[in-house]
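Usage

Read records sequentially. Each one opens with the input sequence:
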Amino acid sequence: MSKISSWINAARPRTLALSLACISMGGILAVINEAFDGLVFAMCVLTTILLQVLSNFANDYGDFASGVDISGRIGPQRALQSGVITKSEMKVAISITAILSLISGIVLLLISSLGTVSFIILLIIGLLAIWAAITYTIGNNPYGYRGLGDISVLIFFGIVAVLGSNYIIQGVFTWENVLPAISCGLLAVGVLNLNNMRDLEADKEHGKKTIPVKIGLSAAKTYHLCLIASAWICIILYSILHYVHILQFVFVVTLPLFFIHFKKVSPKGGKDLDPLLKQLSLSTLLFVVVFGISWILVMNIQ
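and closes with the structure output:
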């Protein structure tokens, strides 16, 4: 594998669909409220991609340093695991990506119409997002190894990504948007749960106490169903509370993808779960896109 290919793999392009889905939901909610700003949204997307890549680099480094990637891991071979990229090179990449994420985030806040207090609060949240991306698997006591990854993903992929981007774009916070934010967050947790179910044995061996390690594979599959079902309940409830026209429910055409997904998850474990991570990420992105199309159709007939 070439150096360039190794860096691309380390960035894990297949994870970007999920990040784009969550940040796009924030943009769509701004469109619904007729307050969309294309430039601000584009900077939201850039900042999100940088944070996701930062998280992926840090996760690669942390899992390799802890020994999780050295033996027993089932998923695709990681950059450090392959030996093409060294630990020192990955440290530099993490530092550069963290700096770029911070710069992008500051530019995003500067081009938006935020007051001083909002600017400071969102800057602090951005710094926390960078910290969370790095310390998930890096450090003396990484929180990802203590079963706290799920709540972190719910917060940063759901609450922060959706509500944060929406607030930056339109400058107004509305409580109703919490429902689609939680919906996206729960689907993101579902992707993490798939990853953790796949790596259950290796994680158990190396003391990485993820939710599947704590509750077992069978219960983790039930938990997975609850995550997906709850995500759909949240978005349907939002649509009912904001009912304008039947066309806003067009997004339910994507629901069969999630039924098919869980049907495939049920009998599987280990390496057989790996392809389903990409499938759930892309299904989530499609769900968000069609949700947006549903509302655009409604707005065009009003």
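Summary fields computed downstream for this record:
- The chain has a mean pLDDT of 88.
- The first helix runs from residue 3 to 11.
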